[in-house]
Amino acid sequence: MKKSILNLGKTLNKVEQKRVQGGMVILRCSSGNCYSDNWVSGGTSEGDTCAVLFGYGDYCRGVINNNECCIN
């Protein structure tokens, strides 16, 4: 049984290992992506600063555009 447990998954290469932090893959904020859910802002006007929440404290900053938070 120990042998079968040790063989679960695959070995990560160096690039993949660098992307993992505490068992989670680090999120990258991509410019131009807009989100209609899970975002917060101190204002509600076009161009106001906002943040998209991804859980575990991860977020990306953007601006409000057409009632969505768009990463800039």
Automatic annotation (TrEMBL):
Its recorded name reads Natural product
* Upper classification of the organism: Bacteria, Pseudomonadati, Bacteroidota, Flavobacteriia, Flavobacteriales
Task: Please give the superkingdom of this protein's source.
Answer: Bacteria
